[in-house]
Amino acid sequence: MINLTIDGQLVSVPEGTTILDAARKLNLDIPTLCYLNLEKIKYLNKVASCRICVVEVEGRRNLAPSCATPVSEGMKVITNSKRVLSSRRKNLELIISNHPFECLVCAKSTDCELQKLVWEFGINTQRYTGERSEHPIDRSSGALKRDPNKCIMCRRCETMCNEVQTVGALTAFGRGFNTVVAPAEMNPIVTSACVYCGQCVSVCPTAALTGVGYIKETWEALFNPKKHVIVQVAPAVRVAIGEEFGMEPGLPVTGKLVAGLRRLGFNAVFDTTFGADLTIIEESKEIIERIEDGQDDLPILTSCCPGWINFLEHQFPDLKYIASTCKSPQQMTGAIVKTYYAQKMGIDPKDVVVVSVMPCIAKKYEAALPSEQTYGIRDVDYVLTTREISKMLKEGSVNLNHIQDEDFDNPLGFSSGAGVIFGGSGGVLEAALRTVYAKMTGHELEDVNFTSVRGMAGIREAEIQIGDRTIRVAAVSGLGNARKVLEKIQRREERYDVIEIMACPGGCVNGGGQPYAEERDEIIEKRMHGLYQIDRNSRVRKSHQNPAIQALYEEFLGEAGSKKAHEILHVTGLMSESVECHH
To answer: Distances from the Cα of 451 to the Cαs of 200, 509, 524, 532, in angstroms?
Structure first.
């Protein structure tokens, strides 16, 4: 243990601790901007570029960045001297001198960490004026918006993209005054290796990185009397959106959200979890066929996460064949709405508008792909993030705190607990195992909880006994961990039968479109626990026992894997093969 004093208070901390963490042990609040530490997903940004957290250390000539300076025995630190406070203020004023003053119309207003610090420091005048750097805004992907004019060079996004996700789409570009974090050579994001996982958006302290919004288009559709507007809600949204209304993280607010969406004027409110159950029926058939056919095309990789499918195509094109051909639950739900539902309601599919509420920015990209169409009609028209729909609810004078629960509409509103847990890492795999077991053995599981594949750990492996077969599975969270597993598969160092990969650490509960959170690790876990609470309380906990899914096959699809099911619920070719056409 290292002993030191901070502002005259003695503290003992482990060797290697930074001054910042030592101060927090004493409940001393040193302001930060570029620093971010997410222990659960092993993400630490310590470039010390903003110099907002500087402190005085006795015996040192220069002020020290507390976020990147380790403690030493006998160290004496002062966090609030005149020199320290003057330096912090000056650094902050210099940062905002090259930052747009458009807070009232900024997408990150009230969630902006720079804005918060300016308010806390009481800065209400522009001390430094002069030239500002100017860069074009990039909306090329239709999913992720990049505004370099708001970049403060904190490098959080670069660290997340390159070290945690290992995507390599962002880097520091330029020199001196005009330096920003951007794709190589300042090229459009759509031409880069970006997979649109949105983790860069989650950690950006300003609005340099945000999602491309579709609120205006959604309102226009709702106000168009010629359109039948459907909304579907992803499982991870229901345990996160309450945070936007001051509720406890992880609290399921499914019924309140359904009621709120109905107040906005949607003609029907459906559950993407229905699509998750449908995905399991189709995907479990693929899993069983591949397992019984042999090892040549194993493992099979679940395909629900468009971010990780993008990653596979960019980084491991030789392994594309192992991905399932199933569309994601979002796309399946949209496709069924514009075929089965439209037919039952007697509505022309061209007059149906499907809006998805998703925790994910990559879903915006996925929905726009030409491969995600059914009979020439786009499956999903607009994708809104959890943050976007909360703004629409507030704009429409809907407060989820003061609204009675309502149920989803039928027939696409009934779902199983298995479908709900899709929102957390390991949930897709666990849901699949519940159905695969029943189909392979002819017996139903009494204990449906596959706890070995749950949790926040980046790679979770298990061997599952199904009849006389031992099935080797893995649940992978975060693209950096996906790289490790896929490289082992390439080198034939590991053998798996089924792998679930989610691009975002922790899964969809930590998606790039979820509410911004300071205590990320704790909040992600609470959201995940909320999903398993819904599963435990569900009347039906296996996808194949969902009566609405059974009726869909009896009335419309025939059987799992049928010609009609493949036409509507599967894709031919993967995302990268359609990118040029899309853009």
So the answer is: 30, 18, 17, 11
Secondary structure of residue 198 in the 3-state scheme:
coil
* Cα–Cα distance for residue pair 404/374, rounded to 1 Å: 36
User: Which residues, listed in sequence order, are joined to residue 471 by a DSSP beta bridge?
Assistant: 464
On whether the CB atoms of residues 33 and 118 are closer than 8 A, the answer is no
Last residue of a domain, one of 211, 242, 263: 211
CA-CA-CA-CA dihedral for 521, 524, 529, 535, to nearest 10:
-160
User: What does the pLDDT read at residue 296?
Assistant: 66
Write the pLDDT tens digit of every residue in 222-271.
999 999 999 999 999 999 999 999 999 999 999 999 999 999 999 999 99
The residue among 234, 279, 574 whose CA lies nearest residue 435 is 279
What order of strands is seen across the sheet that includes strand 228-233? 268-271, 228-233, 352-358, 382-385
Instruction: For residue 68, give its domain range.
Output: 2-97
Residue 248 maps to which CATH number? 3.40.50.1780
Verify that 393 and 278 share a domain, yes or no.
yes
Residue owning tokens 């980084």: 315
Residue 23 is classified by DSSP as H
Same domain, 67 and 153: no
One domain, residues 179 and 240: no
Indicate which CATH number applies to the domain containing 9: 3.10.20.740
Domain end position, chosen among 67, 97, 127: 97
- Closest CA relative to residue 541, chosen from 352, 415, 355: 415
The token pair that represents 207 in the structure block: 């609005």
Burial class (CB in 10 A: 0-12, 13-18, 19+), 280: buried
DSSP 561: T
pTM for this prediction:
0.91
Please check whether residue 356 is in contact with residue 380, taking contact to mean a CB–CB distance below 8 angstroms. yes
Q: Which residues of 60-83 are buried (b: 16+ CB within 10 A; e: fewer)?
A: eeebbbbbbbebeeebebbbeeee
Same structural domain, 187 and 251:
no
CA 260 to chain centre: 23
Give the CATH number, domain containing residue 207. Answer: 3.30.70.20
- The DSSP element (H or E) to which 533 belongs, if any, is helix 520-536
Torsion over CA: 174, 176, 182, 188 (sign): negative
Q: Let me know whether 93 and 129 are in one domain.
A: no
What's the whole-number mean pLDDT along residues 472-492? 93
Picking from 578, 570, 580, the residue whose alpha carbon sits closest to that of residue 281 is 570
Average pLDDT over residues 292-296: 72
Report how many domains make up the chain.
3
Count Cβ atoms below 10 Å from residue 42 Cβ, excluding itself: 14
Does 424 lie in the same domain as 331?
Answer: yes
The residues, any chain, with a CB within 8 Å of residue 542's CB and separated by 6 or more, are 416, 418, 434, 435, 438, 444, 445, 448
Domain co-membership, 459 together with 512:
yes
Do 75 and 118 belong together in one domain?
no
